[in-house]
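Revision sheet: structure tokens.
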Amino acid sequence: MSIAKAICCLALFLGSAAAVPARGEATGQQRAQAAGRAILESPAPRLTLKTIDGEVIDLGSLYGKKAVYLKFWATWCVPCRQQMPHFEHAYETAGPDLAVIGIDVGFNDSIEAVRAYRKKLGITMPIVFDDGSLDAAFHVRVTPTHVVIGRDGRIQYVGHFADKELDDALMAARTAGAAATGAPIGRGEHSAAHAGRTSANHASANSDPAPIAVGDLLPRQSLRTLDGQRFELQHGEFQHGGSPQGELAHGAPQRKLTVLVFLSPWCESYLATTRPEVSATCRSAREQVSALSGDPQLRWLGIASGLWANSEDLRQYRAKYQVTIPLTLDASGEVFRTFRVNDVPTVLIADAGGRVLRRIEGSATEDAAALRTAVAVYEHASDEHAPR
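Predicted:
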């Protein structure tokens, strides 16, 4: 047996046995395939990608000429690392009828980390760093996710394992029909088929509106929490049966700050081994939120990433850490993209009028007093401007 074949076989075994965040690998396959079911047989997006090395890849120009294999992964992902020999082997043996491209999902990752990872593992395929747009277009819910596009330009396979089923899909895709008309990148839960053409610089979709930044107003958007309640971002109203939170008993409005906490249910547990510093930051942020959650001048919403998480995972997270603030699951990643959040924890503070005042993210939340200090400043300012 050749060394390359031996490596490939070992990767298949490891890819089937690897541990993943809060769930076994079989569930990873189920999640990947369930999320990808809606786009199977759909025309793939016609994207122009830019790799971390500046190379431009026009996917649309490949359709009809060769199959395309996209692997979504992350540097902190254990099964991604274990499957990497299989991925590198696929790239090295692709031949002229298969394009192989790595897509780092861009979640709690960086281009610098990707470059270091590439050097350490000796991988050579082109790599694109995503901002969440490609994840949305291909319904990525777990890492790794394998997407195989046939020569006809249609999505033929979505899965999680590096196994015989994937290898069979790669082989079949090379001979799949005539070219279909590709489609541009969609948003959220939309199908890949959508009119127009998209250029992606590090996979950024120009069809998305500009992200909400400090100084901007919160969007007029209603989010449903785990308990079925509605949280209105713009109007400062948290509806629970009758009257929305944000009004006093006599009807006078309260001047509450809105605090949005972007999180991942598995950050503290899974990243404790692969990214301990990030795990510690997530723990620090959660503890700060818990300490301030009873403040009557604050209205809270925890927004959980849908990567490797579903509603049940979020409920378990809430129970395990006794989280008391309202929580919502951003399954499609739309809210994360709206605020251009690629790292957890990230905390946004908005004033009573819905204008974003402060953004605290990553290591900035390590200071145990960071959130309390920021909130105190804006609460004081709010009190000074309150009507007398």
